[in-house]
Write a structure and sequence with these properties.
This protein folds into 2 domains: 3-195, tt1808, chain A (Alpha-Beta Complex); 200-239, no CATH class. The protein has a 6-stranded mixed sheet. The protein has a 3-stranded mixed sheet with strand order 3-2-5, with no helix packed on it. It has 240 residues and is α+β, with helices and mostly antiparallel strands. Helices cover 30% and strands 21% of the residues. Strand 8 (148-154) and strand 9 (157-160) form a beta hairpin.
Length: 240
């Protein structure tokens, strides 16, 4: 029996319980630490802000994915720390129920490593995401040690994604780089521009607005000085 098969065995006490469609709550426990929570929220905020005009994706964190072929809640479920499903309706969900979503699995998964989960994230979950979910891209990141790895599905097997000279990994699915910036996992555009949070975006706009206002004020002061100099020379600047 493979690792994946062993972990996919249903719990006997729940084996025969059937649940109504659309009524599956997420079963995921709290994240390992506040640092892990911060990282999860950061990924969600940045992607949702970048894609605020898109309506064809679903991104979530610490949410249960149910994938039982028998459509039972007690069988076959996993809860990635962060995942993205493309070409689907953007709407709130209590969980991701594969059999209610046209058989779709996440296109991208990110696991946040911790002392209690790292071994499973690197082995068992990696195998499940490769062999069962067929998730096209899998990344893991440790918010404490900053360990960061990326994999892409090639002919049914995960192959390590080659990082660029900054240590970032390109996500073909998201059309974004993932890389470590100020000890946090962040998204970057193809051109290497940091994908901001809404707060960072507002701050950038404020700085740009202030810079524009300062430039206009400096130009106005120069024009006033020039007009004063012309008047000293007996020239009316309004006639020029």
């Amino acid at each position: 029996m493979t690792i994946a098969e062993d972990l996919l065995r249903p719990s006997p006490e729940f084996e025969d319980i059937e649940y109504p469609s659309g009524d599956l709550e997420s079963q995921e426990p709290p994240l390992e630490s506040y640092l892990h929570l911060q990282q999860l929220l950061l990924l969600l905020k940045c992607l949702d802000w970048l894609w605020k005009d898109k309506q064809d994706y679903f991104a979530a964190g610490n949410l249960t994915i149910y994938y039982s072929p028998n459509q039972k809640k007690s069988e076959y479920f996993r809860g990635p720390d962060f995942f993205v499903v493309l070409d689907t309706e953007r709407k709130p969900r209590k969980s991701w129920v594969v059999w209610e979503e046209g058989g779709k699995y996440p296109h991208v998964i990110v696991e946040l490593l911790s002392n209690s989960t790292a071994q499973v994230d690197r082995t068992t979950k990696k195998q499940i995401y490769q062999d069962i979910f067929r998730t096209l891209e899998y990344f893991w990141f440790d918010p404490n040690s900053l360990e960061f790895e990326g994999f892409e599905l090639v002919k049914g097997q995960y192959q390590t994604i080659k990082p660029n000279d900054k240590g970032w990994f390109w996500s073909e699915q998201l059309q974004l780089f993932l890389g470590v910036y100020e000890q946090k996992l962040r998204f970057f555009s193809l051109e290497g521009v940091l994908v901001p949070t809404p707060e960072e975006s507002a701050q950038i706009e404020k700085q740009q607005r202030e810079a524009t206002e300062q430039q206009l004020e400096m130009e106005q002061q120069r024009n006033q000085k020039l007009a004063a100099r012309l008047r000293e020379l007996g020239v009316d600047p309004d006639t020029l």
